[in-house]
Amino acid sequence: MFTTMVGGQNPDGLLGRAGTCLLEYLHHETEAMWSLAATPLGIAYPIVDGEGTGLGYLCMLYDGDANRYERLGTAVAAAIGLVHDAQARTLPASDLMGSSVGDDTDLRIVAYFQPIVELRTGQVVAIEALARMQTPEGVLGPEAFLDSYRTGAAMLRLFDRMLESALQFLSDHRHRFPDLSAAINLEFAGVPEHGLTELVRTRLDEFGTDPECVSIELNERIAYDLSPAAVEQLRQVTGLGIKLLLDDATTTFDAIERLPGIPVSGAKLDRRYVSQLNSGDGDFDAIRAILAKATDRGVELIAEGVETQAQCDKLVALGCTFGQGYLFAVPQPASSLSAVLDAPLVGSW
Questions:
Q1: N or C: which end of the chain has fewer CB within 10 A?
Q2: What is the pTM for the complete model shown?
Q3: Average pLDDT of 48-74?
Q4: Residue 55 phi/psi, 5° resolution?
């Protein structure tokens, strides 16, 4: 089988459609466990680009003959490097901004998923749907196309694509992961003033999904600028049983006061705090303050951007229960995610 873990380097760009197919091939054709990592783990095959720059490692954990898959590992690592070079030649963002939303652009938007885990055990408790764009040159992140989705109607189409993909995954794998939940981000440009509630209700009915298995993430800074109509949409959606998470939460949680009558179930600890945990002078006091405020308000805290085992261990010691990041898995298509979820990911013991 394979997993997709990483330490410090971001391998998301290595996992376009071709890169994912290569890892799936290893999963199906070998008896070893494979991963992408920033530092060598087990038997490691360097991944380099066309100029010889190191991108990371294709790592193999195998308790049999270490030489059995040497040629295969070397070949796949080289192929992943070629995939990276191809994806580096992506379409300029300016080209994408000129395309009309609702035509070919919409059709190229797909959902990638990243697990949210219990930090102590590595058990996956949820998945977050993240928008990506498929192009002939590779897979693009949201910064390349989100500006095309700034109107209410366009936002709803993008949100619907992520919601539909997430609910489809939960439905397809409900027999294997009955307690799995999904989160969908509304950071695109705010909250639509019309249509959100009807859309969510329709999709829940279509897939027979328990509303309590679904969370909507709202960036805390956006909460300050919501119109009364948008706030009412959130109130109606949470009234269906959908959970609301605050993204990039601050030490004050003041945004909760801007959402009267709307229950906030969880919050994301921004990656800038998590990244400081690698150093001895990390801002532990700020993290403790956020954790304390979250506890006072009955809000579960999820740490974002967990990239090293040291960060995971320190977060557990500080009292943080959940997290997500490249230590556990990179964002990836549903086809490869189902294999990753079969066993607990990295945990802290």
A1: C
A2: 0.70
A3: 78
A4: -110, -20
